[in-house]
Amino acid sequence: xxxxxxxxxxxxxxxxxxxxxxxxxxxxxxxxxxxxxxxxxxxxxxxxxxxxxxxxxxxxxxxxxxxxxxxxxxxxxxxxxxxxxxxxxxxxxxxxxxxxxxxxxxxxxxxxxxxxxxxxxxxxxxxxxxxxxxxxxxxxxxxxxxxxxxxxxxxxxxxxxxxxxxxxxxxx
Length: 172
Prior knowledge:
Largest sheet: none
Number of strands: 0
């Protein structure tokens, strides 16, 4: 009877681990929804530094020095561009598609590390990208309007939330 309980306990732990990885995939997608290039920049750095082991996966390229440099420069550029008055809404079709694709890439990376389905990770990360884009947009708009503060202040706080959340997710 004891071995049956041990197998059941192991199965429960495995199921919790799978669910945990899937939550992380959605979370990194949400980061991509907030700042489309922050998520891949942080995932690239995490893979490059060995926090995420993508060796042997089709996504191992993201940990390369080239990918780290490209995603880092693009993420910094996005942090600046987001504050400009002519920047399109993140919910417009092209920026939204970018958030879905990049959220999917990052979600797949987190699932690859755990040996789980890349497709599931991509779908969850892409879904998180949509959630982050729309919730982030609405939250930012409402905070600016209700608190009567400049968009720059809320946008900078949103930057910090995206950065902290991304690092938290890849460190798990």
